[in-house]
Design a protein that fits this description.
about 180 residues, Aminopeptidase, seven-stranded mixed sheet, about 30% helix, globular
Length: about 180
């Protein structure tokens, strides 16, 4: 972390969205290589990956800043949507019942130059703490293939492997994962 004055983990604000979108593009285009081919990467960026502004409005999406640059982002949700940015969602995003449904871990992205430095883990710990405080006892997510190792290291187990067909016909493998919050 040479030359870095400090890291700041904070709730994302609406005016962060353009910087988060650029972070998502950098992250996906670099960290997905070797897991997805170029067509899958570009299609996922067009149709699926992006900011879910509802998470920002709910105050459950966070960013990590290093010297004012957004270098990581991720959040959790008390709403039904499991994955995808605004361009993926359709209709009203109904709330979950914490007594019987898991909270969602959503949209974790790290700048490639900051990968494997614990930022994803820090974001996760914040999300798990907040979801527990909101009454949830389980977490669920839809992992990308490059994200799966992080989530396994965080105690998630694979529940289902799928191939999602995007609107242009491109198929993208994903993994539905879950875990209790307290473990």
């Amino acid at each position: 972390m040479t030359g870095i004055d400090r890291l700041l983990l904070r709730a994302a604000h609406r005016d962060d969205i353009p910087r988060i979108e650029r972070l998502i593009e950098r992250s996906v285009r670099t960290l997905s290589v070797g897991y997805y081919d170029d067509a899958q990467i570009e299609s996922a960026l067009r149709f699926m990956f992006g900011v879910d502004s509802q998470l920002v409005e709910d105050g459950t999406y966070h960013v990590v800043e290093a010297d004012g640059d957004v270098v990581a982002a991720g959040g959790w949700s008390r709403r039904r949507t499991l994955f995808g940015g605004d361009q993926w969602k359709h209709g009203v995003d109904e709330p979950l019942d914490p007594s019987r449904e898991p909270a969602r871990i959503r949209a974790f992205f790290v700048d490639p130059s900051w990968a494997r430095r614990g930022l994803g883990r820090s974001l996760f710990e914040t999300c798990a703490r907040d979801a527990r405080a909101a009454g949830f006892s389980r977490l669920e997510l839809m992992a990308t293939l490059p994200g799966e190792p992080l989530y396994r290291a965080l105690g998630f187990s694979a529940d289902e492997r799928i191939e999602l067909a995007l609107p242009d016909g491109t198929r993208v493998p994903l993994v539905r994962m879950s875990r209790p919050i307290g473990d």
